[in-house]
Amino acid sequence: MRGPIELAARAPAKVNLVLRVGRRRPDGYHPIESLLAPLDLCDLVRVRIRRGRPGAVTCRVPGRPELDGPGNLAARAALAFRLRFGVRDAVAIRIDKRIPVTAGLGGGSSDAAAVIRCLARAYGVRDRSALAEVALSVGSDVPFFLARGAAWASGRGERLVPVRVPTIHLLLAYPRDPRLAIRAGDAYRWLDEARARSGGRRARPSRRRISYGMIDVRHLANDLEEPCMSRRPALRDVRAAVVGAGATSAIMSGSGPTVLGIFARRAEALRATSAIRGAGESGLEVHLARTVHRQPGVTPWISPRSASSRSTRKS
């Protein structure tokens, strides 16, 4: 009987540099056009597979017990993979979280994609279309995290066109106050209600493609931002704090509530972080990040203890 396989993958956060939202479709989804970019802010996802031993899918998130169990998108991704490819082996998932939860940064979707990538590696699955179908069955953002890097997403988010986005230095300001949390479904509903009050203006996503060979911050946009800030006025203060700290531009990422600020240089973003913390913004969790060109790969998991032991033996 073969022993367990242990694989690891970094699960990157994402930001929406552009998010245009169309009218709600009969199936309940909104068509979007969005420019998505992965970041160097990542969770670490470890997947342990008991080859030849049928069993359950388990998911554990140390320090975040509310994220444990089958409701986690990562666990749902493993279950969907097993169903699609006829796998019964026991799968144990561990997620070391660094990306804020329910923040508009795609952390849960990225964790799910990391699990799919690990399982695809373990079972030698190379059918990208089949993997994309599994990803979409778990969530609209999950297919993006199976792609190679930055992309224009359309439809529900599953139609992806790769693009080249230069390195952008970001400050991510995430309000910890649970009263400012926003569920994606609420954000889209608030947008629908705002459009109904205004007679349906801007009910279709923009079809104009933006060239990001050089980022023009005037083109950054998020249709969900204004409805969300109307319902959560404190988010306007978060955006003002980021701009006041020197950001060239600041918008809400995805369905929020995280506000991203763009800076010309990392040193400027670092100074802004210090300024926000020094101003007593204790309710904000601040991260420095930058866009990356490729999604991370999958590697065999080697525990730090094991690596240390080998190093000691070699010496």
Characterization of this structure:
This protein is 32% helix and 28% strand. The chain has helices at residues 73-85, 107-123, 128-138, 142-146, 184-197, 225-231, 234-244, 266-278, 304-314; strands spanning 5-21, 32-54, 57-60, 89-96, 151-155, 159-162, 169-175, 221-222, 249-252, 259-263, 284-290, 298-300. The protein has 9 helices and 12 strands. The longest helix has 17 residues, at 107-123. Strands 1, 2, 3, 4, 5, 6, 8 and 12 form an 8-stranded mixed sheet that branches. Strands 9-10-7-11 form a 4-stranded antiparallel sheet, covered by helices on one side. It is globular and about 60 Å long. The protein is an alpha+beta fold and 315 residues long. The model is unreliable at 203-214 and 306-315 (pLDDT under 50).
Describe the SSE topology:
Layout: E1 5-21, E2 32-54, E3 57-60, H1 73-85, E4 89-96, H2 107-123, H3 128-138, H4 142-146, E5 151-155, E6 159-162, E7 169-175, H5 184-197, E8 221-222, H6 225-231, H7 234-244, E9 249-252, E10 259-263, H8 266-278, E11 284-290, E12 298-300, H9 304-314
Parallel strand pairs: 1-8, 3-4
Antiparallel strand pairs: 1-2, 1-12, 2-4, 2-5, 5-6, 7-10, 7-11, 9-10
Helix pairs in contact: 1-2, 1-3, 2-3, 5-6
